[in-house]
């Protein structure tokens, strides 16, 4: 997590922009001449680049959701990789939201997201439902290629409680907390490696939803060596005030995600795009995304400062 923490420190901003394009999140002018999946994929790429250009100096990372690209077939998958490469070229940490989970040779093949350069990812998300057999291949690849993984622990969606809040011990420990303990174990080997010893965090992070602030604070106490990826801020209902418990006492240890709130910020004035050219629309998309990213940064950092004052 050293690269990620350095990027956060350089920007003074613990937030990540989710690059999850859909037709609804693109101005209609960008899709007007998209007669094929290949055309639509190119429109997604232009949209992504406009946002990356607008925010690269104020955010440390981007998080493309691969499903949005796979929906367009091979052309979309190619644009996913191109988007990641472009983001890395602008100095951004790229967190591939792929949520893979399988065992044996299949898990090892999925872990090629970390070992094969064509994906241009610094980290990926992983589903732990199959246990250590599904995680170890990713940990091994992350160790060998100096990458990171983020394991789902307590997700932001409302129905996560159907599984993740189930008690799994007489003491009332939830399944999410049990998974948190496993994540600490899985990261244990890397926490003493040269790549992470300077950060205090292992290369095995956790996904913990902003919509569950109490669970986030409990998991932070249980997982002192685990960096959190925190989705659910903004559009899903997570607030900056509820985020303080996800960070450690130094105000570090968490990366807050916003997708629609930033890449869809242009929709606050959709009528302004009616008569624009493609290039002008892309410029306005970037401007709106930058303003939203700055507002998010100020919202989060203000909340962290208030927490520091209260602690003092």
UniProtKB/TrEMBL annotation:
Pathway: Pyrimidine metabolism; UMP biosynthesis via de novo pathway; UMP from orotate: step 2/2
MF-aspect GO terms: orotidine-5'-phosphate decarboxylase activity
Pfam families found in the cross-reference section: OMPdecase
Keyword Lyase found: yes
Enzyme nomenclature, EC number: 4.1.1.23
Keyword Lyase (UniProt): yes
PROSITE patterns assigned to the protein according to its UniProt record, in alphabetical order: OMPDECASE (PS00156)
Catalytic activity of the protein: orotidine 5'-phosphate + H(+) = UMP + CO2
UniProt-listed Gene3D superfamilies: Aldolase class I
Gene Ontology terms describing biological process: 'de novo' pyrimidine nucleobase biosynthetic process; 'de novo' UMP biosynthetic process
Uppermost EC category: lyase
Active site: 99 (proton donor)
Domain Orotidine 5'-phosphate decarboxylase: 14-276
Listed transmembrane segments: none
Record key words, sorted: Decarboxylase, Lyase, Pyrimidine biosynthesis
Homology family: Belongs to the OMP decarboxylase family. Type 2 subfamily.
Family annotation (NCBIfam families): pyrF_sub2
Alphabetized PANTHER family for the sequence: OROTIDINE 5'-PHOSPHATE DECARBOXYLASE
Protein name, per record: Orotidine 5'-phosphate decarboxylase
